[in-house]
């Protein structure tokens, strides 16, 4: 009996058992393991009725066939029909012998031994797996895939007849090289089947009319990096059946290869598609072009460890929603900020002032994300990510910190895609499954049963976060080729790592989750390689390969409802004093609950909430103990975080929201007020006498708290005790400054040469 492990090529198949990639045996022979049930009954009928009609009756040797063959040989001097049974052929395949009388006798003896040791089905299965079919092909499954590009279970009547006769003279009858000879031999089989009335005459005639069209299909290399990975992971598994969708895999490989050819050499891409029902892999493209060494085709970028950029932000906001820190329209601060020694910057180096959670996530703003992470805590966030299946690698195994949310740790496309599926799976995650069936218990030492699904986010938080992401435009900056799908709404998140090394986009629908990476596997920078620019266009191409019904959004949970909240407090409008509601927002809330306060202002060391109780004198003016003014009443006012003053219209700034100070207090307060010195309001600046520079503007230290942040015409220009104007164009300009306590001053001036 042959060694069923080492005798066969190792095969990685798709979800239907068709080979994706085959690894030849040690002798270079392509032999795919197959069972009798996996072979078309048409082939079995043709084989048995042509080769050995009494296969199930004889004991391994058919005396009548031998006598008939001997008589024909004596009468004609040539072999007219063979006397070998299928069992005898199996004996010769397993133990080749010389074509002599002794060899024939030994073959018959071994056939009788086979019949004594094995039943008919076992012997037939040996033939199905070891019969020669030309070149290095052995077994009907390998022959069917190679010559006809299909499984042996899918053979037509004509193809079944062709493969039934091919082992008689595999080299002389190869249908890809000698179609005329092959057709003649096939027709001989069909005549025999017609004589025995095995198949209806109509089907026989249709098989006669079918031309012999065969080609030698090179052995498949679909999903090559996944196949290589699984072969290494399950070293003793002969056939590894995956969950890969063959058609989608083929289309994706072609699409990615075509797409990446527009990029410089050294650039690659990877795509992973998961079925959200059970997190099984539907397609696995580990590199853009497996056979292209210039693009590092053999490097698997699905499992490679890279910086995720901003792709972790949806998880942060989802967790913060569940923790009750924020809601969808919570007020966040996109302003120059310091969190200890950490000073995050936005991608475009600018700031937007007051932004909602929705806007912050859709625009992938960095500073608001760090503000939320600071409130949640880096360690808590790290623990949640680990639970979601994201294995994070920090530099020198440092503890989690605020840089985590901006790509300060590394992970893989595989982990990111698995975790991102929670937005299409109502907050549930589980390990990705690559196999259609569990491997054998001895296939790997580390084989473990899959973990059950576990909850990372509530269904409500998952839906709200997905709804936010779906509101961003997938077609932004896209070419006209994508106009047909411009209306498509799908939750997605881009990411870009430092130095443009990695461009990401993750997306999830009710049915599928997509992960895409574009960059250089060797880690070198690629100019302008950011998620929106390079990864999103590839996602759009991927989505066109799928039916619309697989791209729908998850259903909304019943306890997620729209409610009106008000800024600056961020709480429900119906729970606020009407005077506190300065800007209304329509928000998706969980159980109609909104967090009690807007998050803390990181620049305001005196921040204690956005409700201020002011002491008023009899005239309704502000007073305090230093002014020697009696307190007549105390009134509560809603104010915006002080660091937003620069971005607020005049009516919402504190000087207009709060009552004026009593005259007796103004002199004391003037000593504490931040003021820009060195330039007069509404003045006109001209170059100095040498015509080369404008005067320097400085801020006094009176009332100065913390670091100063300078803005020119609304754009942040840096921090420091002073700010130098240079290179200004003619016209009106505005210089603004904010200190660490949220105090603000600004001066409008003109420049004229």
Structural descriptors:
single chain; five-stranded mixed β-sheet; 29 strands; 18% strand
Quick rundown:
The chain has 753 residues and is of the alpha+beta class.
Account of the protein in words:
The structure is a single chain. Helix 7 (157-165) packs across helix 8, helix 12 (313-323) crosses helix 14 (366-376) and helix 12 (313-323) packs across helix 17 (459-470). By secondary structure, the protein is α+β, with helices and mostly antiparallel strands. Mean pLDDT is 85; it is low at 77-81, 441-450 and 477-486. Strand 15 (502-508) and strand 16 (512-519) form a beta hairpin. 28% of the residues lie in helices and 18% in strands.
Q: What sort of overall outline do the alpha carbons produce when their principal axes are compared?
A: elongated
Distance between the amino and carboxyl termini? 98 Å
Task: State the secondary-structure class.
Answer: alpha+beta
Radius of gyration: 38 Å
Which blocks of ≥5 consecutive residues have pLDDT under 50?
77-81, 441-450, 477-486
Q: What integer is the average pLDDT? A: 85
The number of E-state strands comes to: 29
Strand order of the largest sheet: 7-6-16-15-14
* Main sheet characteristics: 5 strands, antiparallel
Query: Which percent range describes the beta-strand content?
Result: 15-25%
Number of helices: 20
């Amino acid at each position: 009996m042959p060694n069923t492990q080492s005798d066969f090529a190792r095969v990685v198949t798709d979800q239907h058992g068709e080979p994706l990639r085959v690894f030849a045996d040690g002798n270079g022979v392509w032999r795919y393991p197959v069972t009798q049930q996996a072979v078309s009954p048409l082939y079995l009928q043709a084989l048995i009725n042509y080769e050995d009609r009494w296969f199930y009756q004889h004991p391994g040797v058919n005396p009548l066939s031998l006598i008939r063959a001997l008589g024909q040989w004596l009468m004609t001097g040539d072999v007219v029909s063979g006397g070998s049974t299928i069992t005898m052929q199996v004996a010769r395949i397993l133990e080749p012998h010389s074509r002599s009388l002794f060899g024939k006798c030994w073959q018959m003896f071994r056939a009788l031994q086979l019949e004594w040791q094995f039943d008919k089905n076992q012997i037939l299965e040996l033939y199905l797996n070891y019969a020669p079919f030309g070149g290095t092909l052995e077994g009907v499954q390998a022959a069917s895939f190679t010559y006809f590009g299909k499984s042996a279970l899918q053979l037509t009547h004509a193809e079944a007849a062709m493969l039934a006769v091919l082992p008689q003279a595999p080299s002389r009858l190869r249908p890809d090289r000698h179609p005329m000879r092959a057709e003649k031999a096939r027709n001989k089989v069909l005549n025999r089947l017609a004589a025995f009335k095995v198949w209806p005459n109509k089907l026989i005639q249709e098989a006669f009319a079918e031309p012999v069209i065969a080609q030698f299909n090179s052995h498949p290399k679909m999903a090559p990096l996944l196949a290589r990975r699984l072969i290494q992971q399950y070293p003793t598994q002969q056939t590894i059946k995956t969950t890969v969708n063959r058609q989608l895999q083929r289309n994706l490989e072609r699409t990615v290869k075509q797409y990446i050819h527009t990029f410089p050499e050294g650039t690659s891409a990877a795509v992973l598609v998961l079925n959200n029902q059970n997190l099984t892999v539907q397609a696995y493209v580990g590199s853009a072009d497996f056979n292209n060494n210039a693009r590092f085709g053999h490097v698997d970028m699905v499992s490679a460890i890279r910086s995720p950029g901003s792709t972790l932000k949806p998880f942060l906001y989802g967790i913060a929603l569940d923790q009750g820190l924020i809601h969808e329209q919570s007020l966040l601060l996109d302003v120059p900020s310091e969190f200890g020694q950490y000073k995050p910057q936005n991608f475009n180096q600018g700031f937007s002032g007051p932004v909602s959670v929705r806007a912050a996530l859709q625009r992938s703003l960095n500073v608001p994300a760090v503000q939320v992470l600071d409130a949640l805590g880096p360690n808590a966030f790290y623990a949640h990510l680990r639970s979601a299946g994201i294995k994070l690698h920090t530099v020198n195994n440092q503890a989690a910190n605020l840089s985590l949310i901006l790509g300060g740790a590394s992970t893989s496309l595989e982990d990111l895609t698995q975790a991102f599926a929670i937005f299409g799976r109502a907050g549930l995650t589980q390990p990705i499954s690559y196999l259609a069936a569990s491997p054998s218990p001895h296939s790997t030492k580390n084989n473990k049963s899959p973990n059950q699904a576990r909850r990372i986010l509530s269904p409500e938080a998952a839906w709200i976060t997905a709804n936010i992401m779906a509101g961003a435009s997938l077609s932004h900056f896209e070419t006209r080729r994508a106009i047909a799908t411009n209306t498509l709404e799908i939750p997605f998140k881009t990411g870009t790592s430092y130095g443009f090394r990695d461009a990401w986009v993750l997306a999830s629908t009710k049915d599928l989750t997509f992960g895409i990476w574009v960059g250089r596997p060797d880690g070198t920078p690629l100019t302008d390689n950011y998620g929106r620019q390079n990864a999103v266009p590839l996602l759009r191409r991927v989505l066109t390969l799928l039916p619309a019904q697989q791209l729908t959004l998850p259903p909304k949970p019943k306890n997620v409802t729209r409610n009106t909240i008000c800024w600056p407090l961020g709480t429900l409008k119906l729970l606020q004093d009407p005077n506190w509601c300065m800007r209304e927002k329509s928000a998706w809330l969980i159980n109609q609950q909104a967090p009690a306060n807007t998050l803390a202002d990181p620049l305001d060391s005196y921040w204690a909430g956005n409700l201020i109780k002011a002491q008023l004198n009899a005239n309704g003016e502000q007073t305090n103990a230093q002014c020697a003014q009696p307190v007549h009443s105390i009134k509560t006012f809603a104010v915006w975080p002080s660091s937003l003053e620069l971005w607020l219209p005049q009516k919402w700034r504190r000087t207009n929201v709060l009552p004026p100070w009593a005259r007796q207090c103004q002199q004391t307060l003037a000593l504490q007020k931040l003021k820009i010195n060195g330039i007069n309001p509404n003045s006109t600046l001209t170059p100095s006498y040498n015509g080369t520079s404008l005067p320097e503007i400085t801020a006094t230290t009176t009332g100065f708290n913390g670091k100063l942040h300078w803005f020119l015409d609304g754009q942040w220009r840096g921090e420091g005790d002073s700010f130098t104007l240079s290179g200004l164009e003619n016209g009106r300009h505005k210089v603004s400054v904010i200190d660490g306590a949220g105090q603000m001053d600004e001066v409008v001036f003109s420049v004229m040469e």
